[in-house]
């Protein structure tokens, strides 16, 4: 059956790109509600923004959704990954500004908060998107593909000049608590050489060495170093799960990303939904649901470092 939180949970921090204070509250919602954001700082007009693939508008270095009235919320990928990874299908996310708080740069604080409140089952069945045949998108920089699979399988490849990152590859079956155990604590990262350029564009104004892994050639400049030797590719997979969650339902398919990012994953969802014979909606029985992220996880599964 579909799920929601048992009780609200609030997170305080600041936006990674805006640098502005941000308060976010995830509230329980009824069956068939889905995931929606509500801007509490806007008092008139349409303040509700759907967390759905066709509400995404292009934005550098993060995922940004916008409603028909032009109201937006950005940097939603980590909280969306946490909800998907914990198997939460319905929630209303209230936020007092245009950007989700970055917290420690990973999804682990959101996961810990969600699991501290617990998940409640609702009265409607879970529907999943079953991929029936491959769909793919490609740019000059990389590619992404979805193909049939019994659960959600993810392969990711990255390649950076900085030796602290270099070439990394990882493959995971994201069933049950894999996301929580393997990906949730991996932080966003950047190259030191990119920081000034981003800030000149009004980006990364809230970035610190504590909420992002900053590398410079072979060096990791953030205190404490890496949480995982391959933290960078793990974070890219975290982002991809958050962006795939904008499909509006769990995906039964094999996602492959080669130097892919937020924009490419969203393009892939556009390609999927514009290809009617490439997918179908299926009701999830207990066997199918056990192949999805978030089934039977416990708070103690969150990595201790987070």
UniProtKB/TrEMBL annotation:
Gene3D superfamilies: lpxc deacetylase, domain 1, lpxc deacetylase, domain 2. One of its GO terms (molecular function) is acyltransferase activity. The active site is at residue 262. Its EC number is 3.5.1.108. Pathway: Glycolipid biosynthesis; lipid IV(A) biosynthesis; lipid IV(A) from (3R)-3-hydroxytetradecanoyl-[acyl-carrier-protein] and UDP-N-acetyl-alpha-D-glucosamine: step 2/6. Zn(2+) binds at residues 78, 235, 239. Keywords: Acyltransferase, Hydrolase, Lipid A biosynthesis, Lipid biosynthesis, Lipid metabolism, Metal-binding, Transferase, Zinc. GO terms for biological process: lipid A biosynthetic process. It catalyses: a UDP-3-O-[(3R)-3-hydroxyacyl]-N-acetyl-alpha-D-glucosamine + H2O = a UDP-3-O-[(3R)-3-hydroxyacyl]-alpha-D-glucosamine + acetate. Its cofactor is Zn(2+). One of its GO terms (cellular component) is membrane. Pfam families: LpxC (PF03331). InterPro entries: Ribosomal_Su5_D2-typ_SF (IPR020568), UDP-acyl_GlcNac_deAcase (IPR004463), UDP-acyl_GlcNac_deAcase_C (IPR011334), UDP-acyl_N-AcGlcN_deAcase_N (IPR015870). Catalyzes the hydrolysis of UDP-3-O-myristoyl-N-acetylglucosamine to form UDP-3-O-myristoylglucosamine and acetate, the committed step in lipid A biosynthesis. Belongs to the LpxC family. This is UDP-3-O-acyl-N-acetylglucosamine deacetylase. It comes from Roseivivax isoporae LMG 25204. The lineage of its organism: Bacteria, Pseudomonadati, Pseudomonadota, Alphaproteobacteria, Rhodobacterales. The gene is lpxC.
């Amino acid at each position: 059956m579909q799920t929601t939180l048992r009780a609200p949970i609030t997170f305080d921090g600041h936006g990674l790109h805006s640098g502005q204070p941000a308060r976010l509250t995830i509230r329980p919602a009824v069956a068939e509600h889905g995931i929606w954001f509500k801007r509490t700082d806007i008092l008139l007009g349409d303040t509700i923004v759907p967390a759905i693939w066709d509400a995404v508008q292009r934005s550098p270095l993060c995922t940004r959704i916008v409603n028909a009235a032009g109201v937006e919320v950005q940097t939603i990928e980590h909280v969306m990954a946490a909800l998907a990874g914990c198997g939460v299908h319905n929630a209303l996310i209230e936020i007092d500004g245009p950007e989700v708080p970055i917290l420690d740069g990973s999804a682990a604080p959101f996961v810990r908060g969600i699991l501290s409140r617990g998940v409640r089952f609702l009265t409607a069945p879970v529907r999943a998107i079953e991929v029936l045949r491959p769909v793919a998108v490609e740019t000059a920089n990389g590619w992404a593909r979805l193909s049939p699979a019994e659960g959600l399988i993810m392969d990711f490849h990255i390649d950076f000049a900085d030796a602290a990152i270099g070439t990394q590859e990882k493959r995971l079956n994201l069933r049950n608590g894999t996301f929580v155990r393997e990906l949730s604590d991996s932080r966003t990262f950047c190259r030191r050489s990119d920081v000034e350029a981003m800030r000149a564009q009004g980006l990364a104004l809230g970035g610190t060495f504590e909420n992002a892994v900053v590398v410079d050639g072979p060096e990791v400049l953030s205190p404490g170093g890496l949480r995982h030797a391959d933290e960078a590719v793990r974070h890219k997979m975290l982002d991809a799960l958050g962006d795939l969650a904008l499909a509006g339902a769990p995906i039964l398919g094999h996602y492959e990303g080669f130097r892919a990012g937020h924009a490419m994953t969203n393009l892939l969802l556009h390609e999927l939904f514009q290809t009617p014979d490439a997918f179908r909606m299926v009701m999830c029985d207990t066997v199918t649901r056990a192949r999805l992220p978030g089934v039977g996880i416990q708070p103690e599964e969150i990595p201790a470092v987070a």
